[in-house]
């Protein structure tokens, strides 16, 4: 669990010709009274670094507020929202119908807030000569029908398959888009709890393949160009391709609240959607929604 400390805030100047000193004091006191308290943001490890930066920036501006940010996976976050142990669930996938049904039975009304764009990068070790892959071959690798890199244009070596655990929204999204709802991952796939561990596994194994959120992409891994249709049209994981929707594994990232947010949760989410908050989205390696 990450609890982020508060910092200094400055109060902006007001034109006294238009507003009386008494009015300014009353408004400032009212604002400070509302931007205070404590909430938690729980769930997706993909959204985790973004929420961490947003919470830090928010608390720099509002020192009486405490935002606690925790990971665990999208499913963990949504479950926490449904049982009332978090005010905001962070998710890298849309909420499932079954989760909506459970929420309603618990008297919870999940409201979705799309806060950023992301793209899932399919990555290999930089020493791997493979630079592109079709969805058909990707499905074969992750279902276990393709087991050697030579089958997809690489060297004669066994493929080490790395993925995410089933509580991950990235796992759910990748499964739906690449494998299909009724197809299961190979039992030989290494299921890891977060993006960072997937990247580390690929960095440390020249024969590994994995998938990670775009914000985790760096020079230590190589993102493969994707051919979704199998017609030779290759699309790379770049900001331009992701934000245009042309990249086949582009997706939105979400916050979920119980009903429309109020109090500190509303102040925080409004901040995330503000120009400053969307600048933080860019700084974190994701892409703004407005």
TrEMBL record:
Residues 29-275 form the PBP domain. Signal peptide: none annotated. The keyword Hydrolase does not apply. Keywords: Signal, Transport. It comes from the Archaea. One of its GO terms (molecular function) is phosphate ion binding. InterPro entries: PBP_domain (IPR024370), Phos-bd (IPR011862), Phosphate_ABC_transporter (IPR050811). The keyword Transport applies. This is PstS family phosphate ABC transporter substrate-binding protein.
